[in-house]
Write a structure and sequence with these properties.
Shape of chain B: globular
CATH topology of the largest domain in chain A: Rieske Iron-sulfur Protein
CATH architecture of the largest domain in chain A: 3-layer Sandwich
Number of domains of chain B: 2
CATH class of the largest domain in chain B: Mainly Alpha
Number of strands of chain A: 9
Oligomer: heterodimer
Radius of gyration of chain A: 26 Å
Distance between the termini of chain A: 67 Å
Largest sheet of chain B: 2 strands, antiparallel
CATH architecture of the largest domain in chain B: Up-down Bundle
Number of domains of chain A: 2
Strand order of the largest sheet of chain B: 1-2
CATH superfamily of the largest domain in chain A: Rieske [2Fe-2S] iron-sulphur domain
CATH topology of the largest domain in chain B: Cytochrome Bc1 Complex, Chain C
Helix content of chain A: 10-25%
Number of helices of chain B: 16
CATH superfamily of the largest domain in chain B: Cytochrome Bc1 Complex, Chain C
Radius of gyration of chain B: 24 Å
Structural class of chain B: mainly alpha
Distance between the termini of chain B: 30 Å
Order of helices and strands of chain B: HHEHHHHHHHEHHEEHHHHH
Strand order of the largest sheet of chain A: 1-9-8
Structural class of chain A: alpha+beta
Strand content of chain A: 15-25%
Strand content of chain B: under 5%
Shape of chain A: elongated
Order of helices and strands of chain A: HHEEEHEEEEEE
Chain lengths: 179, 423
């Protein structure tokens, strides 16, 4: 206790800092389970992948399937629609991706995208026949007016990104497995 | 500054309590006979007590509804319908709760605009103002989560749009959204936690109301002249004078409220919320409740990125900018006591600010209208202009006006005109 008179850091200061530090670390560690419980639970994570029968989707038609609680659009594109998507100069795009990047090789007529607008998560219109498809023939989001083209790329409106392409594979010519 | 006075109750039981816990003094000093209050408060000062009343109504009706509600995506919608159709007086209590939210916001918004008009946010009342803003934020969070609980189409899609706002945050945005949802979309875990928080937050809010009143006691109530209290002649006790006046306001306000509750319980709601939530189909247009429309308009008005000109480099994308503008429009209000540089509180003596105040009111009405329209045609432009004015009002007009405006002479005291008239 001799150095207390000298005005420097003393044993008591050290104990205060050490105790406060341990208390702080303890509080953070104790808080983590209460924060992490909000993240998806194991049963939610375990949601299986879905298989979609695409044999009866004619060119120009599309279906919506539910995967992980969200809609997925599976669209059988016509030659004209593929043509239209490939003709767009990359420089004109907001989120620059070629059409080929967004489909699987050898399956260019099939476009599989999440049916979730990248703006604020609405389901864009244009999958069912008769729905508005927007200025670029793909999808149109009614919430805040985002237009997507026939490759699901954002062309106009507030959405920042193209419709997300989920992980999927062709089990055979008639079946797509999403997830 | 206010002094605390000890109360000596005549009733023996109350005196016994007071000696051990001075809770009777507390009430008397904040809203009682030992609360000297400016003698000139007008009816705009009624809306604080009305907001308090609505909080009580919301808690009482809400606790009752919770006794019948099932927080599960498969049951929620039907449990609300059952409450309305089969539970005794369920239709009434549900209508009181749903319309109560609207009337709570009406009272609070008028209370806030009263503060803006009479400069109630200026020294020494900055903390009263800021605690009030905390109350407003808690109300907004509570109202938003409450609207999700009936699990109709608007509930689901409103929740989807608003939780997705957080995805605009760079880097961690998507992880935060997943954390909020407890899954990969708004679903059962989301509904459960919203119910839990919707029940909790009103009580937190009530706690902040006590702080709000405590800060009001310390700084005294403001008044329509905006000048400080000079002597006892300027003041009258809160009880009975303002308790009676507040009571009259309560009668009038409840009359209008009950007209909505009983004659047109769905007038302020959206018909789409009577369609059960369907994650696979978005309604034609997603419209928030009316009390969120101005902020929703601000969110949607930003459709441009901020970047380096003539390159593709985007520094702040439109989505993030819109979210920042929306939250910023409220955060901004916390700085209002320092943004307004005028020493004069009441707009009565600020002839130029008078006009800017009413332009701000008109701007908020305009943004409310824009927020309810589809983002087509002229509306996005109108929304952008309205948003620009909102920010200009607080960031440009108020700081400059305080320096250049020639204010009118202030009266000597609150009581002076009254005493002169009596002589």
């Amino acid at each position: 206790m001799t150095n207390e008179a000298e005005g420097g850091a003393n044993r008591r200061d050290f104990l205060h800092v050490a105790a406060a530090t341990m208390g702080g670390v303890g509080a953070v560690v104790a808080a983590w389970p209460f924060i992490d419980q909000m993240n998806p639970a194991k049963d939610t994570l375990a949601l299986a992948s879905v298989e979609v029968d695409i044999s009866n989707i004619a060119p120009g038609e599309a279906v919506v399937v539910k995967w992980r609680g969200k809609p997925v659009f599976v669209r059988h594109r016509t030659e004209a629609e593929i043509e239209q998507a490939r003709a767009v100069p990359i420089a004109d795009l907001v989120d620059k991706q070629t059409d080929a990047d967004r489909v699987q090789e050898g399956h260019a007529d099939w476009l599989v995208v999440m049916g979730v607008c990248t703006h604020l998560g609405c389901v864009p219109l244009g999958t069912r026949s008769g729905e508005e498809r927007g200025d670029f023939g793909g999808w149109f989001c009614p919430c805040h007016g985002s237009h997507y083209d026939t490759a699901g790329r954002i062309r106009k409106g507030p959405a920042p990104k193209n419709l997300e392409v989920p992980v999927y594979s062709f089990v055979n010519d008639n079946t797509v497995k999403i997830g | 500054m206010a002094e605390w006075k000890a109360t000596k109750p005549n009733n023996k039981a109350l005196a016994w309590v007071e000696e051990r816990l001075p809770i009777i003094s507390l009430v008397n000093n904040v809203v009682g006979k030992d609360t000297p209050t400016p003698r000139n408060l007008n009816y705009w000062w009624n809306f604080g007590s009305l907001a308090g009343l609505m909080l009580v109504i919301q808690i009482v009706t809400g606790v009752v509804i919770a006794m019948h509600y099932a927080a599960n995506t498969g049951l929620a919608f039907d449990s609300v319908e059952r409450f309305v159709r089969d539970v005794n007086y369920g239709y009434l209590i549900r209508a009181m709760h749903a319309n109560g939210a609207s009337f709570f916001f009406i009272a609070v918004y008028i209370h806030i605009f009263r503060g803006l008009y009479y400069g109630s946010y200026k020294a020494p009342r900055e903390l009263v103002w800021m605690l009030g803003l905390v109350i407003m934020l808690l109300m907004m969070a509570t109202a938003f989560m409450g609207y999700v609980l009936p699990w109709g189409q608007m509930s689901f899609w409103g929740a989807t749009v608003i939780t997705n706002l957080f995805s605009a945050i760079p880097v961690v945005g998507d992880s935060i959204v997943t954390l909020l949802w407890g899954g990969f979309s708004v679903d059962n875990p989301t509904l459960n936690r919203f119910f839990s928080l919707h029940y909790l937050l009103p009580f937190v809010l009530a706690g902040v109301v006590i702080l709000h009143l405590w800060a009001k006691k310390i700084s005294d109530s403001g008044n329509p002249l905006g000048i400080d209290v000079k002597s006892g002649a300027d003041q009258i006790p809160f009880h009975p004078y303002y308790t009676v006046k507040d009571g009259f306001g309560v009668a009038v306000f409840l009359l209008i409220y009950m007209c909505y509750v009983t004659f047109m319980p769905d007038a302020l709601g959206h018909p789409d919320n009577y369609i059960p939530a369907n994650p696979m189909s978005t309604p034609d247009s997603i419209v928030p409740e009316w009390y969120f429309l101005p902020f929703y308009a601000i969110l949607r008005s930003i459709t441009f990125d901020i970047g380096i000109p003539f390159t593709d480099v985007v520094i702040v994308p439109a989505k993030l900018l819109g979210v920042l503008a929306m939250f910023g429009s409220i955060i901004l209000l916390f700085f209002l006591p320092w943004l307004d540089t005028s020493k004069v509180r009441s707009t009565k003596f600020r002839p130029v600010y008078f006009w800017f105040f009413w332009i701000l009111v008109a701007d908020m009405v305009l943004l409310t209208i824009v927020g309810g329209k589809k983002p087509e045609g002229i509306w996005p432009v109108v929304g952008l202009i309205g948003t620009a004015y909102y920010f200009a009002h607080f960031l440009v007009v108020l700081p400059l006006l305080g320096k250049i405006e020639k204010t009118l002479p202030l009266p000597e005291s609150i009581a002076n005109p009254v005493i002169k008239a009596a002589e």
